[in-house]
């Protein structure tokens, strides 16, 4: 029996950054230099900003970036490894000034890549794990008990539902 070929999807990044050191525009431009023109969204709600401010300092903002072109699913690993290099490059005194979440949106689900193992995460190689963050069921976005607080509010869910509809159009030509 022939294996089913997985459809491509959209590559995603969330940049949580110090607004006195970086700008939304510069991070979007950086993303587009790496992966081409795409879409961006600056969420208003950042529930983990206080948590990250202990490491990164005050004045944290977030911007989401999404590719407009599709990528093979295997690229999640490569993109996450690149993001770790970016975080290191932007760090000051061994503290991150930008936290980069890398994810992959398919028609079926949304996965974040992480360096932290846990019972619900799957090893994908080179010390990177896949964290199933959302799944789509009957056109609705569903979360899990472990979905990060930064990804459960309606503002972000609407963004990912829109992104999934865009992906569906891309795949259907």
TrEMBL record:
It holds the Pfam family DUF4416. It comes from the Bacteria. InterPro entries: DUF4416. This is DUF4416 family protein. It comes from Peredibacter starrii. The lineage of its organism: Bacteria, Pseudomonadati, Bdellovibrionota, Bacteriovoracia, Bacteriovoracales.
